Amino acid sequence: MNENTAKTVSKFLSLVLRHSPEKIGLKLDENGWADVEELILKCSQKGNKLDKVLLDYVVENNDKKRFAYNEDETKIRASQGHSISVELNLAETEPSEYLYHGTVGKFMENIQKEGLKKMSRQHVHLSKDKETAIKVGSRRGVPQILTVRSGAMHRDGFKFYLSENNVWLTDEVPAKYIEFK
Ligand code: HQG
């Protein structure tokens, strides 16, 4: 499989399964699932050639395992990262004492004031290790890594969820739980 083709498909799937299904006239259910046959048909009709072999390859080999099938592989969804409102039905999970968030310098002043906000997504995204957070921050420039006192947040009643592809999700991180250094 050509890696560039797989990457192009992954980007397009992120667009339609997380943000804009209407771009190809696709419907997601309330849990974010798309019908696999409909997805393949509608992607192909819009000039993004897709078949089940290619979709299988992307689901299996995607670097962050961004997409997942349901049990009988008739449906597919993005495991996290949505801007449209979907109910992923993730179980609440107790986080480790610290989680990490990769961002960039230009956002720091605001984050110091108001903490981490969801911005355009459905959750604040946190990583279990600094290496992953560095990669997340690097998408936008020189990464700045924030340490989140997730254990303390959890004890104070904040809820955490772990996506199927191991991204930690929460609704907000007030500034008092962030170590800036
Ligand atoms: C920042 C990728 C100002 C925040 C990654 C981030 C992740 C604030 C940006 C996933 C702020 C939002 C999500 C505040 C947060 N003031 N800026 N109060 N609170 N920010 O893309 O975490 O490759 O929505 O630091 O790996 O960067 O797409 O969030 O820089 O898991 O699968 O606002 O996207 O995954 O940006 O990335 P995003 P994110 P995929």
UniProtKB/TrEMBL annotation:
- Record keywords, A-Z: NAD, Transferase
Annotated signal sequence is none
Name the enzyme group at the top EC level.
transferase
One matching Pfam family is: PTS_2-RNA
Give the GO molecular function terms.
Answer: NAD+ poly-ADP-ribosyltransferase activity; tRNA 2'-phosphotransferase activity
EC number(s) stated in the UniProt entry for this protein: 2.7.1.-
* Coiled-coil annotated spans: none
GO BP, one annotated term: tRNA splicing, via endonucleolytic cleavage and ligation
Q: Which InterPro entries match?
A: Ptrans_KptA/Tpt1 (IPR002745), RNA_2'-PTrans_C (IPR042081), RNA_2'-PTrans_KptA (IPR022928), RNA_2'-PTrans_N (IPR042080)
PANTHER family reported in the protein's UniProt record: PUTATIVE PHOSPHOTRANSFERASE, TRNA 2'-PHOSPHOTRANSFERASE 1
Quote the function comment for this protein: Removes the 2'-phosphate from RNA via an intermediate in which the phosphate is ADP-ribosylated by NAD followed by a presumed transesterification to release the RNA and generate ADP-ribose 1''-2''-cyclic phosphate (APPR>P). May function as an ADP-ribosylase.
The UniProt entry, under NCBIfam families, shows: PRK00819.1-4
Family classification? Belongs to the KptA/TPT1 family.
Question: What is this protein's record name?
Answer: Probable RNA 2'-phosphotransferase
Query: Which organism is this entry from?
Result: Flavobacterium panici
Q: What is the lineage of its organism?
A: Bacteria, Pseudomonadati, Bacteroidota, Flavobacteriia, Flavobacteriales
